[in-house]
Write a structure and sequence with these properties.
single chain, mainly alpha, Growth Hormone, Chain: A, 17 helices, 82% helix
Length: 464
Amino acid sequence: MADPDSALKRTVLIIACLSSFIVPFIGSSVNIALPTIGKEFNIDAVTLGWVPTAYLLASAMFLLPFGRVADIYGRKKIFLAGTVIYTIGSLFSALSISGLMLVTCRVIQGIGSAMTFGTSMAILTSVYPLEERGWAIGITTATVYSGLSLGPFLGGFLTQHLGWRSLFYFNVPFGLVVIILVLWQLKGEWAEAKGERIDLPGSVLYPLMLLLVMYGLSLLPASSGIGLIGVGGIGVILFFFLEARTSSPILNVQVFKHNPVFTFSNLAAFIHYSSTFAVTFLMSLYLQYIKGLSAQSAGVILISQPLMMAAFSPLAGRLSDRIEPRVIASLGLACTCAAIYLLSFIGDQTGLPYIIFTLLFLGFGFALFSSPNTNAVMSSVEKRYYGVASGTIGTMRLIGQMFSMGMAMMIFSIIIGKVSITPKLYPLFLRSVKIALVINGTLCFIGIFLSLARGKVQRQNMEK
């Protein structure tokens, strides 16, 4: 007789893997299509950066609030609604008639992604026991990197032969398959915080402060940008003050205060994604502008990084079930740091083999960090906090990615200005890329020490 728990775990893993594939695929494929999108809508480099950043910003703004709503009202409900919204956003992104409409539709996609990302990982953690969790997270992470792997290659092919709109059309059937599977196969509901109230002030203040800081970064060095960042910074302080005094917060500050594994794992994740996400964005533009490659050829080169991620993530996840996650994750950060510094030496005469090698090395470091770090976060909290923990690690990822893009757009704005990138501006563009990579490498170096400071996950579990 079939084990019902085994069937449920298998169903949850399939749904988590499918949803985990869709989101990174569109993210990495859109980066390849940015020059084509910019040309069609005639938008400058800074505005072009908002095509991926609007999605990240919306995801980051709503991930924690929806993580808390899912804990209270049911993770399956929120996951299903998010998949529907994401699929609708994909369809209308493909139908966009202007840069503004595309950015708006990317916001809709981001809201849907915020509802699915945290809940899928929380459901996965709920059904898999501690001794199998690292493996399950490793498999899911591998599908994330599979999406990242196919994104540049398939995205470049589709952009070159069918146009950039085909990237968004490609997402629609995947979304429909996930919706059908949830309605047909996913039985039960998970709501460990049922009956608790929603933190309305925190849910409003949190997205607002992120919006102010991010938009302020894009306006630098103007005084209005500094002002918005300052107001957003005050909002951050007020947010933590309110959350520490709320009985049912969207962000449990006490978990950070009394759980060093949780705190430093999340800080390491923030630093890691802050230092790595813009690399693909920068290298996509570099390969097409400076090296003169087509979208398809650039995609073939960029695939080297996520291929290494997909290949080694399950192994890293399994190792983190047996070896302290901080050891593996810290080694991954060290590899990532070295790879980014190596990339900062690129120029207009840099050979493609050097670029491919450094991207492979970067992907290896990324794989060693991600799965063990996620396992450390989810294994350091009680079951009723799985949604919050999943939402928090996802938020660190998204805020890190958002901050990474914000820094890149800020550097473009200061060095190039709000103009389209033309051959005359290529030297300034290359200078911007090199500065951004040096800053990213330095951030990653700092992250190594945060990762080492987290403490032992196994001891944390025994003390609960």
